[in-house]
Design brief:
With 418 residues, this protein is mostly helical. The longest helix is centred in the last third of the chain and has 37 residues. The relative contact order is 0.12.
Length: 418
């Protein structure tokens, strides 16, 4: 399975950096699809650790995900547009679910986890650095938002080779910040990288004009503050950061962020529209409450029943629209199981007094990332996005890795005492 692990690293590099777009030859041969097929073949024919596989299959996350996938297949004939599901929805879902299965089969040891997270964070960092560089050197923005009347403001999105809107870029920024902060404990090099990437990520997030991104940043900052022993230093850094941010932002960006708490702004209408949109999405979901309109059909449902050409911008109404409220209940149970896995890992690390800086830091970072994503999910879709399935995979393997470390520690202790 070692070869499969390196192919998985190549896959996430190609997937997140869109190598098929950057290198036309790779796009022509469907490079990502080839890698996915090779990885599935590796899983099917490769040698597996039966004990590890048994532990994975006994986890509530693995069982619930299987139930959800079976539910999607069984209810397919009863959804509103099964043809659209077969043509588009299933393909989108498979692209996301593979992150769970590839992670649980290939990222099975602490060294592999370290390398995997290094590659993952490097890819996300490049996705932030590239549009910021283009913005500073060429005036690149990539997107804009409508305000009152005919007014609009520029917003930073992903680079031309990266298919991600401003909110998506804000999510990438919020992804890397907790990881770089917590793993800065591990080494001096990690601290240097964190000091370079975190301010750049905050700057990029401000330029996206993402209000949900700003709320997510405040949440991460609050968690970091509560966990830190150097609260005075952090308070001073927060004050400095706020002062610099206010100084860097023009009037339109200030107005947009003020619209989070004030209705007396140019951008207030779009903020209120988001809330109204959630209620309308809920009404659309009630048209097919049991089995939904089908995977990937949130946008189609809104076009047909509410004259809005966009998918639901709320994970829970999106899932309700596509899978019905039974599917929504299953998806929420999966999220709860993922939270439970990370909390159990944290409890084991504390109870067993495992002095492993990397595993402690990674568990803290993943928990903060997960909680932030739950908050972000109230303003973003994500049933067929990679993050929930990667969360699920990482939550399962991190717990297994920690348990393996404990077994090794106890074995060494027994030999020493003898």
């Amino acid at each position: 399975m070692a070869n499969g692990y390196y192919i998985y690293l190549l896959f996430i590099t190609s997937w997140f950096l869109h190598l098929g777009t950057r290198i036309p030859a790779l796009g022509m041969i469907r490079f990502d699809l080839i890698l996915v097929l090779v990885l599935f073949v590796t899983i099917f024919f490769g040698n597996k650790d039966k004990e590890v596989i048994s532990s994975i299959r006994s986890s509530s996350t693995d069982k619930l995900l299987k139930i959800l996938l079976i539910y999607m297949v069984v209810t397919l004939p009863f959804v509103e547009w099964p043809g659209s599901v077969l043509r588009f929805g299933i393909a989108s879902l498979v692209k996301a679910v593979v992150f769970y299965y590839f992670t649980i089969y290939f990222v099975t040891t602490e060294p592999r986890l370290k390398t995997f997270m290094t590659v993952f964070l490097a890819c996300q960092s490049i996705r932030i650095i590239e549009p910021v560089y283009l913005h500073l050197t060429q005036g690149y923005w990539g997107s804009h938002a409508t305000m009152q009347g005919w007014e609009f403001m520029n917003r930073l999105s992903g680079s031309p080779s990266d298919i991600v809107n401003p909110n998506g870029l804000a999510f990438i920024c919020l992804t890397v910040i907790p990881f770089y902060y917590f793993i800065s404990r591990v080494s001096i090099m990690n601290r240097i990288i964190a000091c370079a990437v975190i301010p750049l990520s905050v700057y990029a997030l401000l330029l996206t004009g993402s209000r949900s991104g700003m709320v997510g940043l405040l949440f991460i900052s609050a968690v970091i503050f509560l966990k830190s022993k150097k609260k005075i230093v952090l308070i001073l850094l927060f004050i400095l950061g706020i002062a610099l941010s206010i100084n860097l932002m023009d009037a339109d960006f200030k107005d947009r962020y003020e619209s989070i708490i004030s209705s007396d702004t140019k951008n207030a209408a779009t903020a209120e529209g988001r809330l109204e949109g959630v209620m309308k999405d809920f009404e659309v979901a009630l048209r097919k409450p049991l089995f939904g309109h089908g995977i990937g059909n949130s946008r189609e449902a809104n076009v047909n029943f509410d004259n809005r050409d966009q998918p639901s911008h709320n994970l829970y109404t999106e899932v309700a629209q596509e899978l019905g409220f039974v599917g929504l209940a299953l998806f929420i149970m999966i999220i709860i199981s993922i939270v439970g896995n990370f909390r159990k890992s944290r409890k084991i690390l504390i109870d067993k007094k495992i002095n492993n800086v990397y595993l402690n830091s990674m568990n803290d970072a993943m928990l903060v990332w997960l909680y932030m994503n739950i908050m972000f999910s109230f303003a973003s879709y994500g049933l067929t996005s990679y993050e929930w399935y990667l969360f699920a995979g990482l939550s399962v393997v991190l717990k297994l890795i920690i348990e393996a470390v404990i077994k090794r520690t106890e074995a060494v202790t027994c030999l020493t005492t003898k």
